[in-house]
Amino acid sequence: MADPHHPHRPSIAFEYPNAPRPETLDIQASARACVRCPADRGKQLLDPYVVFEKCQDATMSLAGPVRLHCMNAMTFTDVLTVAVPVTDQDAAKALYERLGFEARLDTELQPGFRWIELTLPAGGTTISLVAAGDELPAGVDTGIRLATGDARAAHEAVRGLGLNAGELLDWETAPLMFSFVDPDGNRFYVTEAPDR
Prior knowledge:
The protein is an alpha+beta fold. Helix content is about 20%, strand content about 30%.
């Protein structure tokens, strides 16, 4: 009997006739069982065969129709970069450098595909300036929230660069914030966060 998800392997039931069926495994109990197996950490937890092969002696309780997908144990560790489409990569790079970004990478990944990765001095998630096109048009709401220690000064600085900056919002229940758009119409948000 073949496993429909892994045709090259026999089914779990065939390989381990006495093993609980995946759809009846208690997810929490299975996770506890796998924690006992150091070799199962990381990507190996994504494969239900690893769970059975290396944790088959561990006690797993049944919990009715709860389907076990070991891939649910996968977690992401970071947001590396957010791509921002621009019509002129050189002009956009110069503008963002004036806003405090630093170029970490500027290279042609393949012919005609230039990748410019910019970071802020504090590090963290980067933005990548990619060439806009029919399938990736500029003028998007990036959803990117930038932090600043002084929103009023940042608001004036953005306007001083000729960018369209929205109203500086001063609410009692939230930190100072505003949004602005770059020359391609890409919108960014700025929030005052003195402690960052």
